[in-house]
Amino acid sequence: MGDRGHNGEDLTGGWYDAGDHVKFGLPMAWSATVLLWGLIDYKDAYTKCGQYEWMLASVKWPLDWFIKAHPSANELYVQVGDGYADHGFWGPPEKMNMARPSFKITPGNPGSDVAGEYAAAMAAGYIAFKDVDAGYAGNLLRHAKEIFNFADKHRGKYQIEGRVPAKDFYNSQSIEDDLAWAAAWLYRATNDKNYLNKAMSMAGGEAGWGFSWDEQWAGLNVLLYQLTKDGTRKGLVESYVKSWMPQGGIHYTPKGLAWRIKWGSNRYAANSAFVALRAADLGINGGYFQWGEKQIGYMLGDGGRSYVCGFGNNPPRQPHHRASSCRINGGCTTGGQPNPNVLYGALVGGPGANDDYQDSRDDYVKNEVADDYNAGFQSAIAALQNRAG
Fold first, then answer.
1. CA distance 369 to 386
2. Catalytic residue at 82?
3. Half-sphere exposure of residue 358, counting CA atoms within 13 Å on the CB side?
4. Cα angle vertex 122, ends 309, 215, to 5°?
5. Which of 41, 146, 238, 359 is catalytic?
6. Alpha carbons 371 and 363: distance in angstroms, whole number
7. If DSSP codes are grouped into helix, strand and coil, which group holds residue 159?
8. Which of 45, 56, 192, 378 has fewest C-beta within 10 Å?
9. Has 87 been annotated as catalytic?
């Protein structure tokens, strides 16, 4: 509860990125945007399940933090905590005692990538809250516009020009996709064609490799098609989803997971499933809905075991997560014992290329949980529920 900025700004709140205690702004903002996308376009699904108010409260937590992290027009806090020191500590967050430095971007140390993600999240937040709390929504939109202007005018990567020590954790590859993503969400929020023009000018012709915190092309193309019905965007969406389907070039595990890489294999498949499901609901046909449904089904247990904590057959009981594995007034679980605190609904990283997986707390590749692991998965679940009625 002591997180502060350079001038004493209150930086409490927000989300830790995964099983540790660092607030990394880039994946936090991307995760919030993707969760908000699912909430906005599948509101009825949340309402019918009695989860709408809970979801609003969930996404408001990072949105509140983004507001606090933006104390002035050209100043944005994008990280709290030292990733190296933090990873050397295993215990509950209540017992942290290491230094918690904060890092910000400015015109002299820019970070268009992370700033673009903040702007996108806050624009999406405006859409979600405008009929719930107009004042709060208006504040989000004001911040989104300011942050986008800052990101667009003062360009650079946050871990390079911005000098934020995130390279070994969330190393950004580009800024154009983040800026285009932000502009598209601002267009959806405002209907201001200037934002659409910016988004289209930066969108280019990339179909994408894997929709994630570091690559927006696939999600951007779906969103722009949703907003414009542009044929080029439709073709890029089709190219992306087909590349993930059988015979598209991606590896499949024997039990059917579209497997991109070992880090967060479930994450990439879930994110692509959401892209496919959203495309199907926009009328882009080609078996996309059925493919997305099968990918999510694998994670829920269709392959023989669940990869979702607290759900289904033989779910993970030892996720790599400090707070889950430790008691506030006791020690931390070791060995093969289940974590004392169940992370209900958390998706673990996922299996190896041959469905190989062991439920081990020590395996931070296959058994860690993270904000961005759950974001696309959660919104894909909302899309499936929407069809189920």
1. 26
2. no
3. 6
4. 65
5. 359
6. 17
7. coil
8. 192
9. no
Per annotation, catalytic residue among 143, 154, 320, 321: 320
Structure tokens of 14? 């927000």
The residue with tokens 């911040």 is 143
pLDDT of residue 1 exceeding 80, the answer is: no
Q: Which residue has the tokens 């360009």?
A: 155
User: Closest Cα to residue 266, out of 351, 344, 345, 343?
Assistant: 351
Residue type (1 letter), 374: N
Q: Is residue 238 among the annotated active site residues?
A: no
Assigned token pair, 322: 């400090």
pLDDT digits (tens, 9 = 90+) for 109-151: 999 999 999 999 999 999 999 999 999 999 999 999 999 999 9
Which of 117, 215, 368, 372 is flagged as catalytic?
368
Q: Choose the catalytic residue: 3, 17, 20, 41.
A: 20
Asked whether residue 329 carries a pLDDT value surpassing 90, the answer given is no
The vertex-244 CA angle with 240 and 248, nearest 5°, equals 95
What strand order describes the sheet that includes 76-80?
23-24, 76-80, 102-105
What is the distance between the alpha carbons of residues 204 and 218, in angstroms, rounded to a whole number? 12
Q: What is the residue whose two structure tokens read 């509101």?
A: 43
Instruction: Give tens-digit pLDDT for 255-282.
Output: 999 999 999 999 999 999 999 999 999 9
- With DSSP H G I counted as helix, E B as strand and the rest as coil, what are the percentages for the chain, rounded to 5? 50, 10, 45
262 contacts: CB under 8 Å, gap ≥ 6: 352, 353, 365, 366
Q: Is 20 a catalytic residue?
A: yes
